[in-house]
Amino acid sequence: MTGQVAASSANAGAGPRLTGAPGTIWMTRFIWAVAILLAVGLAIDLGGSDILGWDARVNCAAVDAHIEGLDPYFVRNLKGTKLSYPYLPMTLDAFRPLCAGGFLVAHYQGIYLVLAVLCALLLPAPGAVRRSRRDIALRVVFAFGGFLGFESVFATGNFAMLSGLLTVVALALLLRPLSSDGRGNASFLPLFAGAAVLGLVTSFKLVFVPVLAALYFLPQPRTRKLVLIGAAAGMFSLPILISIVFYADLFQSWLSAISGQIPGQHAPGNEVNPSLLFMSLILANRFALAGSKPVVAAIYGFAAIALVLAPLAVSVWRAISAQRSAAVGSRLATLDRWLMDHPRAAMRVTVLAMYAFYLCAPRLKEYAFFELALYVAVLIVDLPATAAAAVLSVAIVLPTAASISGNAFLGGFGPLATALVCFWILLSRLLAPSVLVVRAA
User: Alpha-carbon distance 359 to 424, whole Å?
Assistant: First the structure.
C-alpha cells in the first residue's frame, strides 16, 4: 500500500505472512483439514440432537403472547416452553415480522446457515481494499467453527445470529479501507452509521455495552471519536427509552423477569454461563464467600484486569513507545497521535478492544462466542501463518475434536479458556512492535 511498509517476516521472526506468502501452501491445506473436521463435528453433534431451536421458539412464543394481549414475561403465557423471554419490550414488535406465520421457527436452520455465510463474507479487512480467497476461506471457517459458537447458535436458535450479522455490518462501516496515501478514510457518515448500528446491537444484550468504549481507538480526531461514542450510546439508550415510555407495564415485567423476581420460573440471570464473573463466583464459593458480593466483585475485577484488560493496555503502550516520535504531551494525546499516524494498527486495536470488553462481560453464554469468533475472524488473516494455525487449533480443532470424542466442551469453561488463549496470541503477534504495519517516514 502506498505510504506504508511492513516489517519483514525474517526481521519479525514470525515466519511467513498468511496472505500471499509463497511458503504457506501447508497453511491452505491446514485450513481445508480444519474445514473438513468442522463439517464432521457439526454433522455429528447436530444430527444427534433431538430438540433444536428452543430459543427461537420461546422468542416467537413471546411475540405471539404479546399479540394476544398477554404478558410475555410470565412463562405461563408462553406456549410450548419453560424458558423466559429476555429482551426489551420494544423487541416484541421488532421481532414480529420474523416470527410471522411460524416461518422462522420451522426453517431457522437454513436461514441461520445463510446468515452465517453472509457474516463471514461481509467481514472487513482492517484498512485493506482487497481480500484473497484464502482470507475469505479462513474467515468462513472461523465464523462457523470458532469456540463452537455457531454450533450453539444453530442448536438453540438463539437470536445471537441476528446480533452477529448487525455486528458485522457495524464493523464493515467502521473499518473502512484506507485512502491512497495510507491514511484513514475521511468519510464520517459511514463511521457514524457503524457506531449507531453497534449501539443498537449492544441494546439487545445490555451487558455488552462496554464494547462501545473501543470506538475511541479508531484512527480519527478525538472530537470525532467522542461523537461516535455518543451516537453509539444514544442508539443503545433509545430502545430502553422506547420500552420505558411506550411499554411501561411490560418494562416492569421485564425487570422482574431478568432479575429473577417472578417466582417459579426461569430467570436468565441465574443461568450457568462460562464468564469471568461466574468463574469468580465459583472461586469465592470454594472459600464459603460466594454470598459476599464485594468479594465476588473484587475477584471478578481482578480476573478481568489481570487476564484481559491489563495485557491489552500494556501491549498497546509498548507498540506506541516503540514507534512514537520525540514529541511531548499527555499520554492520551500521545495515544491519539499514534492512532492517527498508524490507521491500520489502530483498526486492529479497535477490534481487539471490542474483543476484550466482550470477553469481560459478566454474562457470557455459549452462543455469545459466535460474536467473539467474528471479532477474531476479522483479525486472523493479519497473523503470521504459524500464529494463525495456532489460533485455529485452539479455537476450532481442539473443541471440535473434544466434541466428536464425546468430551464436554460446551457447558463448562472450555469456550472461555480457548477465547482467552486466542486473545493472548492475537496480542502477542498483532501488536508486537516488530510486526506492526507502520507509516513510512
Answer: 12
> Taking the mean position of all CA atoms in its chain, how far away is CA 182?
27
Q: Give the pLDDT band (50/70/90) at residue 10.
A: very low
pTM of this prediction exceeds 0.85? yes
Q: What is the pLDDT of residue 38?
A: 92
Say if residues 169 and 197 touch (Cβ distance below 8 Å).
Answer: yes
Taking only Cα atoms into account, the Rg of the chain, rounded to an integer number of angstroms, comes to 22
Q: Smallest Cα–Cα separation from 348: which of 239, 214, 187, 253? A: 214
Q: CB under 8 Å, gap of 24 or more: what pairs does 20-25 form?
A: 20/132, 21/385, 23/385, 24/134, 24/385
Average of per-residue pLDDT across 367-387: 94
Q: Tell me, what's the pLDDT at 127?
A: 65
Assess whether pLDDT exceeds 50 at residue 140.
yes
Q: With b meaning 16 or more CB within 10 Å and e meaning fewer, what string describes 36-46?
A: ebbeebbeebe
Q: 386: buried, middle or exposed (CB in 10 Å: 19+, 13-18, 0-12)?
A: middle
DSSP 327-390: ----HHHHHHHHHHH-HHHHHHHHHHHHHHHHHT-S---GGGHHHHHHHHHHHGGGSBHHHHHH
407's CB contacts (< 8 A; 6+ apart) are none
Name the one residue in this structure whose C-alpha cell is 517516514: 441
Confidence of residue 441 (pLDDT cuts 50, 70, 90): very low
Give 17's DSSP letter: B
Per-residue cell: 140 = 468462513
Of 198, 282, 288, 188, nearest in space to 235 by CA: 198
Phi, psi of 276 (to 5 degrees): -65, -35
Distances (CA, A) of 54 to 15, 109, 219: 45, 12, 42
pLDDT single digits (tens) 55-74: 999 999 999 999 999 999 99
224 confidence band (pLDDT: 50, 70, 90): very high
Q: Cα–Cα distance between 148 and 369 in angstroms, integer?
A: 7
